[in-house]
Each structure stands twice: as structure tokens, then as C-alpha cells.
Amino acid sequence: MCGIVGYVGSQSALEVVMSGLKRLEYRGYDSAGVAVLADGGLATAKRAGKLVNLEKTLGRRPLPTGNTAIGHTRWATHGGPTDANAHPHLDNAGRVAVVHNGIIENFAALRAELADRGHHLASETDTEVVAHLLAEEFSSCADLAEAMRLVCRRLEGAFTLVAVHADEPDLVVGARRSSPLVVGVGEGESFLASDVAAFIAHTRAAIELGQDQVVELRRDGVTVTGFDGMPAEVRTYHVDWDASAAEKGGYDYFMLKEIAEQPKAVADTLLGRIDATGSLSLDEVRITDSELSEVDKVVIVACGTAFHAGMIAKYAIEHWTRIPCEVELASEFRYRDPILGERSLVIAISQSGETMDTLMAVRHARGQGSKVLAICNTNGSTIPRESDGVLYTHAGPEVAVASTKAFLTQLVACYLVALYLGQVRGTKRADEVQEVIRDLSRMPHEVDRVLETMEPVRELARSLAYQDTVLFLGRHVGYPVALEGALKLKELAYMHAEGFAAGELKHGPIALIEDGLPVVVIVPSPRSPLHDKVVSNIQEIRARGACTIVIAEEGDEAVVPYADRLVRVPATPTLLQPLVATVPLQVFACELATARGNEVDQPRNLAKSVTVE
Ligand code: M6R
User: Fold this and answer.
1) Residues 178 and 150 placed together within one structural domain of the fold
2) Sheet of strand 325-329, all strands in order from the earlier edge strand to the far edge
3) Cα-to-centroid distance, 26 and ligand 1 (Å)
4) Are strands 496-501 and 221-226 parallel, antiparallel or unpaired?
5) Among residues 2, 325, 414, 590, which one is catalytic?
6) Per-residue pLDDT averaged across 297-315, rounded?
7) Which of 258, 303, 329, 376 to mutate to test the pocket of ligand 1 (most atoms within 8 A of CB)?
8) I need a surface site. Which of 3, 214, 283, 544 has the fewest CB within 10 A?
9) What's the structural domain count of the chain?
10) Are residues 446 and 473 located together in one domain of the fold?
């Protein structure tokens, strides 16, 4: 939520910041703005709407050239998406500019206090109070970093703040509490951003900022201190994503590119995790085998698509390890006072590693003494840093708001964790582990085969562009796949879409079936005991007029008479079917959204990374 960029160096700071904002626009696109330090003053431009509106404004009214700048792309929380609420926000003298991600919970009290002292606040945002408070503190200490530390100590909530002051022309100051901010260290230049994608075209050397830290960014390096002013230890890491990974690479949309990248993403997530003896080796997990063998309960916490990956993981974990596993929406988790102990293993799944609900669930679980293992795609992000261990998915940067390759790689990571637990606890013999690994190793090829046969799915999607509703049905691991198919359609096509457990149909939802209603059914393999039951469900809805869109394994002839449209997927072991069955649903939603004229990569009202609760 909200993308932030800052730069100090010898390049045109505005150009660096604008190109960084382009890479971060997935984080929010309600408005965008920049502030440049030049000629002893501060020049700003900001516009409601997408970054392109700001580009047009800058084309008409260019800002002076300077070497220090900050920028922001907004996902609105306090105040609507207007020019006035767009960041940066300034103090009354126009000497301080601030951009912000997160929520300042005590802003109303601070605002009232500032008003009493004669400040005039021009926007409805929580952010603007910070610009005014910084100006006040700076007027006494003449040190922007110190002013930032003093102000941050007064703020409640989760926030990333980045500020410049006209009196300190070669300095950008950033601060973070429970909200993302990474620093990039170049040759004679420094960067900061919500996500490394904003600066990987310039440098791959990055610094993780810790909780409650302030960073001073200068051309010749960075200084990090705690909110208390104590120097902090700085850890630099190498970003192994390359710049082209964050480009569209000839595709019309990032989502199309990311769907196409899935075979590689799945292969990369498996890479290096199998040792010479064919056993699983998950060194980076950092939770010892003896601790894992003591686990008496697994709880998975996640949101959205990652939650669906967790639902599928439950089937694998319980089947392969016989450990009871619960899956919970991270946003609900801590509020019901969950029963956790030292032998509970909490698995937090998150592509971004910054989802606030999931982060709060992680903190709650650790507070109860449980071990937390993160499954995450973003190196150095907050959730893995605050967890006991991490298994990184290697999907590469996922830019489209709708999660695709992250989902498939989360599934792979979950299967690996489940197998590893089975291996450590002896509930899976070595040959059984190796058999599943062999099956998983075939998956990149199988996903590729699915991708090669997607033209009829695209054509079907176009033919349904004017439908109001699509339902999705599945059983066992097909049920979360149905939920994921519905979520994709909701967020991209803005259609009423719902996923149901097929067995629940007769307990209510079947009343929704009417003539011509498209219903997508994910059919388990004919080797599954549930196969025939789902085929019966297809017959039941078809008898009531549904147009059945059946996703079934190659060679499954039993479904043919009842499928108005048939989408074939390769045969896989039951538990791995989601890796192939989800792909047509992603393609379906992407094409349907395109046919309806929607913004595929930036669906309305959404942001890629949800860093507020
Ligand atoms: O970054 P995370 O995996 O924690 O994000 C969780 C959800 O916000 C995310 O999966 C969301 O549901 C996607 N937009 C779905 O496509």
C-alpha cells in the first residue's frame, strides 16, 4: 500500500524517482507526487489518479533539476484520492516535504494540537501532521534526522516516512515502524524505496532497515539509528532479482508475463532443496529437526491467495505427517485468542512479506512462544525477518496485483515443508519422499503443457464477458482452487464470483443455479474416491440449466457427456492437482478482465501489498 522512493546522487533525481514510482505503482494508484530539492528550495508536483497524470503535469510544468528527490504513489486511507490529499505533504512554510505509507493512529490528536498552535492543515490525510511536526522540531534542532526521531517517538501506528528539507539539500531521511522500507547503496548515490524493484536498475546492494529505525541517505552512504538515536547495525545484502524481471518483457500485462513464468518459478522453488541422497534439505528453515519433530499442531496464517495456498497445504500436511493443521485468515487469527503453545508451528504465507494482518499474526504467535516459519517471496521483507525461519519461494518479482506465480510457488513451498515434516518425524519413508519429489519435479513441464493449450479458455472467457455471475465448485484440494478461481475473477473482472465446496451445493447454493449460469467445476482425478461424486454434482447443476465448464484430467472420459466446455489438465497425484488446475482459472480471469476493458495489472480499489490492517 503506497509506494515510496527517495534518491540522493548525481543523476537527475526526478528521473530516478519517477522511474522508481513506475515500478512501484502496483502498490497503489490513487494519486502520485514528487518533491525535488533544487535552487535552495523545494519544488513539488502531485496529481490524483495514476502516475501518468503526474507525468502529464510534469510535461506541462517541469520542475527544476535537482539531485535529491522523493516520490509517492498512493493507496488512499485517510482522505479521498484527490490532488490535495496526494503526497508529498508540506509544512506551512513549504520547507519540509513528507511522503508516507501506513496509518498514523493518533493523527487526530496531533492535528488538533497543531491547529491550536496556529498551523493550517490543507488535506484530510494523517500524513500532513508529520510535515508540520518535523518543521517544528527542525526549527529547534536544525537536524532533519533528529527531528524525524523526535517526531516518530510521538507517533502511534505503523508507518514508513520519508522526508526532505530545503535547508538540507543533499539529504533524504527515512523512518520505519512495521511498514516496508529498503535502502539501496550505489556508487556516489543512495536510494530508498518500499521495494527493491524501484532501484534494482541502479544497484543490487540493499540494506534492510530494522523496526523503529531512521536512515539518513547521502551521496556518500547511509547512516542508520534507532528512534532513540543509538547507532544501529547495518546489514547489506545482494538483491538477486535483475532489472528485466521487473519489466513486462513484451507482454501486454505483467499478469500475462507472470502466468507464463510459472513453469520456471515452480522449478526455481524446487531448486537446491534436494540433496545428493534424494532427501529434502531445507537448511534455510532455521528451525531444528528436533524442534520440528516435537511439533504437535500446525497453524497456517495468510490472506487472500496465500490463504488459499494454506488451505491446500493443510491437506498435504495432515496426510503426510498426521499432525493436526488449522488454516486461519491472518486478519481473524489473533482476535479469537487462538490456542498456541511451544510445540505449535505457525506457518505464515505471504508473497510480499509485508501484509500487515499476517505480520500481526506472526507477532502474536511468537508472543505465545510458538515457532513461526515464513513462506515468502520477498527477500529481506518484514515477515521472514520477524519469523524464526523462512522458506523463500523463488518466483521472482510479482508485479501484477493478482497473484499467480506466487501462488504456485507457495504451493510448492508448502508441499516441501509438509514433506520435510514427514521426513523428520518418520511418517514418510525416504522412498515415499523421493516419489513425491519426482512428481513435483515433473510439475514445471506439466504447467507448461497447460499453458500451451489455453487458447480455448481465452475464447471461452471472451464469450462470457457480459455475464454477471460465475460460480466455481471443487472438492478436497479442488475446493481452495475453486475459491482462488472466484477470487481472481472478482478482483480482475469485477464480477460476482463465488467458490463452493461441491458437496455443500445441495445445502443451499444450488438455489443459485439458473438457465445458462456458467459454473466452473474442478474435477478430482478419476483415481480419487471423490471423482464420481463430483461428476454427479455436475449432472445435478446441468439438470437445472447451468452451463458447465469442466476442468478435468486428460483421459477422464466420465465427464465428457456433462461438460458444456471441457478444459483438460495433465494427470497428477491428487494433492498436486492444484498446480495445474489453477492455471486455466488465472488465464480465464485475465482474459475476461481484458474483454471487459478492465485494468488487468491494477484492478480498482486494490493494492499489491496490504500494509495496513
Ligand atoms: O503479499 P501477500 O501474499 O501476503 O498478499 C496476500 C493477499 O493480499 C494477496 O494474495 C491478494 O489476495 C491477491 N491480490 C490475490 O490475487
Assistant:
1) yes
2) 325-329, 297-302, 344-350, 371-376, 389-392
3) 12
4) unpaired
5) 2
6) 98
7) 303
8) 283
9) 3
10) no
Measured in angstroms, how far is the CA atom of residue 406 from the centroid of ligand 1? 9
Q: Which of 433, 439, 421 is nearest to 325 (CA)?
A: 421
In a domain? residue 418: yes
Return phi, psi of residue 467, to 5°: -70, 155
CA nearest to 196, candidates 148, 260, 239: 239
Residue 318 lies in domain: 248-450
C-alpha cell at 50: 495514476
Q: What is the pLDDT of residue 243?
A: 66
- Determine which helix (DSSP H) or strand (DSSP E) holds 102, and give its type and residue range: strand 96-104
Q: Cell numbers for 183, please give them.
A: 535502502
pLDDT in tens, 268-284: 999 989 887 878 888 77
Please give the model's pTM, rounded to 2 decimal places.
0.82
| Grid cell at residue 321 | 505427517
SS (H, E, C) 36-72: EEECCEEEEEEEECCHHHHHHHHHHCCCCCCCEEEEE
508 and 467 within one domain: yes
Q: What cell was used for 295?
A: 511439533
Distance separating alpha carbons of residues 5 and 10, to the nearest angstrom: 16
Report the separation in Å between the CA atom of 214 and the middle of ligand 1, taken as the mean of its atom positions: 28
**CA dihedral sign, ordered 433, 437, 440, 442:** negative
- Bridge partners of 163, per DSSP, are 98, 173
Q: Read off the CATH number of the domain in which 548 is found.
A: 3.40.50.10490
Judgement on whether residues 305 and 401 belong to the same structural domain of the protein: yes
- End-to-end distance of the chain based on CA atoms, in angstroms? 11
Last residue of a domain, one of 217, 245, 273: 245
Largest CA distance in the chain: 80
